[in-house]
Description:
By secondary structure, this protein is mostly beta strands. Helix content is 0%, strand content 48%. The radius of gyration is 24 Å and the shape is elongated.
Amino acid sequence: xxxxxxxxxxxxxxVQPLGLFEDHADVGPVRLPxxxxxxxxxxEYRITGAGTNMWLAYDEFHLxxxxxxxxxxxxxxxRFLGDGVDLHRKLGWIVRAALTPDAAYVSAxxxxxxxxxxxxxxxxxxxxxxxxxxxLVGPDMIQLxxxxxxxxxxxxxxxxxxxxxxxxxxxxxxxxxxxxxFVTSHNADVVEEAVxxxxxxxxxxxxTLVPYREYLGSCLEMLDVxxxxxxxxxxxxxxxxxxxxTPDGAALIYNRAGGLYRFPLDTRTPERIDTGDAEGLNNDHxxxxxxxxxxxxxxxxxxxxxxxSIISVLPVGGGTPRRVTPLAPSYLHGWxxxxxxxxxxxxxxxxxxxxxxxxxxxxTETRLTTAPGLDDGSEYTPDGNFIYFNSERSxxxxxxxxxxxxxxxxxxxxxxxxxxxPHVSPDxxxxxxxxYNGDIPSNQHPYYKPVxxxxxxxxxxxxxxxxxxxxxxxxxxxxxxxxxxxxxxxVSNSGPLPEIV
Length: 501
């Protein structure tokens, strides 16, 4: 059942909604009380805290928390307000066995003065705190992951990739823990304040999950590309994928359970789009540049094609689909600016998946790539002069480009990541794409992995990270830019969070 993103049920002690968290409290004999406020419109937390320290055998700090079990990933962008008083004031994420000052814990802590960053931990109640220091100083992106008894801190200066350190065999916390954001001033007579944005609590995929048969929940997000600010606008417990942004800026279109849905940004209530007899739609759907038509990929009804994907087009508001590709499998990815040509990935009996083009009205298809391995994710630039795509011909999946006739194929990115689905901004200045770590096979883009959304200038340069998220397949498979080139829509994923009671 679909439902709009809403605030959780709160305990009676909470005066105001706290977003993802159930309560906040001072831990230890804090002389000056701390606080937490949550701005629902900005999805931003402001936390104040005092306390002498979080170290040795006991702690004093302010905590905004929820209770969790099992594995999880905690991430946020964080900063102190003001210059501060003590160099050792700290903020970050913490996982704690109890709210007593001597409890066992693990934290990802950043010092507000010299920027010292460390994974700190107390294995048992009353034990002395130990730490593993990060080589990175003063990060603003902080992530803390629990996987069994192993805790991993990943930190970055926003725009850069994560740097990670881990500690294993932390069994003293138990399964049910307090998880939250903390602030300590390192001075009993001082209150410090910090701001936390892009806060996400993710329950990752269990190792037993069967891909394409079992799914995690989905969250529709909008990302301000310049600031990096994310807004979660809609969630479902099931799977939806691949949001297009309509050219009028009024709605997003995504696929869910084999169907196509329009999501008006004013009502934020999904509406099913009539696709006639086209069933089993996948996440390869593309709007024409003028926004009047949409191309879809879906399960072929032809018994001789074994349910493989074919491509049709139909009015964007719904209607009877008109088949374009007679052969299968064909997976749509691009539409020419003049509306005359479709781009897609296809396999034609030789086991190689390449990029093809075909007139929108149907006709003879043209093979544009012939390199061994997978070529995918093809998309025109708004001026129609180039096609950007991803190819594994170099050994890893990287971004490439070519002329519309398939000539002048050249590599755009060359790094340790596997890079997928290049999307050119409507103003033609930037390219957004999805990046997996190198341990993912180059020809696969699986569900439910830690991934980056990255951005590169159309003229080249070093890509920068614009979102640190959990997703992959379905996150940004289709053109997802807002018409003013300022935002991206994408899908992140998580298992169900424990209910707040």
